[in-house]
């Protein structure tokens, strides 16, 4: 058997290809950013063709960087930004419209109408999700209703939908020349269209959204030796390397963090934050503003479920400081600047650029910086930005503890923001529990590789994967209980100031 497994990680801001060895160690990677298209306030789009071209490029360059050939790869896994919606013509592979990104809020009137018309409870019960701008169903409906010709094309069988996993998979397996139109249960569970109990598209939900079933990909397990075909269009992969794993990015990070037992949780710090708690084979329905979702399904085994708290703007708030405000020159500059002050100077920054996600689900909210005085400096703003990442995570942890009846003893963390050691210390202080970062912090790609490798026997079982996990750094809480309570009370007051800012029908 070949010595390595590859993983496509198609994310919100970039695409990359990573190659891992049998111990889960990184062998090579290559990464390219793609453009963020912001045509109107609240609208966020990507060019699907650019995403595919750069995905193809990073695969070639990672193999070249590692001095490897396609025959060195036992399998390939795919992980992706979830909910980001692409609709394309299978006859020529041309998208009918730009990809509508998960952060986009143009479907707020669609989500509100679903609630107003009494469909909200049905969607929550069957799909485990609230009607919200976040998920794919509303984005599909918007394109069908607002882009000329797409409705007619869909009804004639000339339009395919996919989140970016399905788009990349279809192109990678041949595109117009026989590309496979498929997704996995984790991505399907983010659409508001899949029934969590049957793990299939639900006719009642499709009827609510007015979406033809023929547009939708086949739903497969997250790890399977035959479900996803073989990579054959990317030039260095003409040896037809099998694609045997597909996972949405946050579920992939859960697998990469080896959270295979009920009660184990991880928090990924990227463009947004995503905290998942494994609930095993039990469907735990949230009463506290969380999502019920599929964590993974390996082969013919039953699906494993999770509670999830999704926070839309965390790491991207740091990008906002860099790109729009010009307060810092690069992402590490947020830590350097925040270290120039001892605390937030009394200010709070709630980055509700796309409304508030879990546990609030308020599309009428918008970002706010509150508590400003002439005393405050850009150091205080940088510190408040890092604290915003951590306070949003505390909101979700508290909701998770209410729903699942557990108390976290430690929080496993991963993602690019975990390189910011001040932010991780603040997270431990805000939560009052230790924060643990693994040796391999980029667990999203690793989880996709694990799913692919399990399907081919490259790795024997999840116990073997557990043996690869090791801690690189742990942060212990340092704040007093009084300071922790006072800081969180200030955060809750700041959140209140963001509400009812944008009228929603």
From TrEMBL:
InterPro entries: ATPase_NBD, Carb_kinase_FGGY, Carb_kinase_FGGY_CS, FGGY_C, FGGY_N, Glycerol_kin. Residues 6-256 form the Carbohydrate kinase FGGY N-terminal domain. One of its GO terms (cellular component) is cytosol. CDD domains: ASKHA_NBD_FGGY_GK. Glycerol binds at residues 82-83, 134, 249-250. ATP binds at residues 12-14, 271, 315, 319, 416. Inhibited by fructose 1,6-bisphosphate (FBP). One of its GO terms (molecular function) is ATP binding. Residues 266-455 form the Carbohydrate kinase FGGY C-terminal domain. Sn-glycerol 3-phosphate binds at residues 12, 82-83, 134, 249. Its EC number is 2.7.1.30. It catalyses: glycerol + ATP = sn-glycerol 3-phosphate + ADP + H(+). Keywords: ATP-binding, Glycerol metabolism, Kinase, Nucleotide-binding, Transferase. Pathway: Polyol metabolism; glycerol degradation via glycerol kinase pathway; sn-glycerol 3-phosphate from glycerol: step 1/1. GO terms for biological process: glycerol catabolic process; glycerol-3-phosphate metabolic process. Transmembrane segments: none annotated. ADP binds at residues 12, 16, 271, 315, 416, 420. The keyword Nucleotide-binding applies. Belongs to the FGGY kinase family. Key enzyme in the regulation of glycerol uptake and metabolism. Catalyzes the phosphorylation of glycerol to yield sn-glycerol 3-phosphate. This is Glycerol kinase. The gene is glpK.
